[in-house]
Write the structure tokens for this entry.
Amino acid sequence: MAAKASLLFVFAFLLALSTTSTAFNVTKVLGQYPDYGSFNDLLSQTKLAEEISHRQTITILALDNASISSIASRPSDEVKKILMNHVVLDYFDTFKIQKLGKKSVILTTLYQTTGLAQGQQGFLNITKLGPGEVVFGSAVKGAPLVSKLLGSVVSQPFNLSVLHVSTPIVAPGFGEAVLAPPPPPGSPPPSPAPKKAAPPAPSEEEEADDEESEASDGAPSPAPADAPAADAPTKGKTPPAPKDADEEAAAPSASSRVASSMAVAAVMGLVANLVAF
């Protein structure tokens, strides 16, 4: 009987020891880093610190005091949604992220557990663009990857990882999105888009040619030089006046008048010969 009681006591002790070793107080952990004081305060104000501390495996995408100011003045329920999307339900430290290769991975966040997420609002997209260049963003289709991984703050394998990111990740539907921070001082400004050169103004000769071309388009085409013009009067002569058809028919021609005169003369000569005979 005493042996059974001893075994139960040892089992309870080991269970308590394992629970203690995996549990953590996120408020105390972040309290050691003043640069994340505002982020830590918002976790406490929204009651998320207590919920996070009850989980055994978590990754927090922490924002420094300057970055968190862009959302600190929003309504408390909106701030809570944004912060819940900064809590990933898995362990990711910088070493594990570097092993991702050049690909994207979808991560489940604490907001997905609420049952209020619409579409992909409760998921994050983490993408490795190149060596040492990793970005985060909402997994909602079309959402930009706005938050860069800047480094590691806390790493307790495989329970707690706190990563420093540059910009709040605001999923579509959580309010106005936060733009990526401007480039650091000294960076060259983006090249402006080239302007299209205005076409040169036409010269006076080109304008005259255009006017002549427009005038020639409306004028009839001239006849060829060697083609005779139809019914064209001869140069220097006046064309005769036209006659009526009846007048032309009634007027005898010159040849018919000569023939008649010769016939009359022949008859008169014959009559004279007869009288003299």
Summary: DSSP finds ten helices and seven strands in the chain.
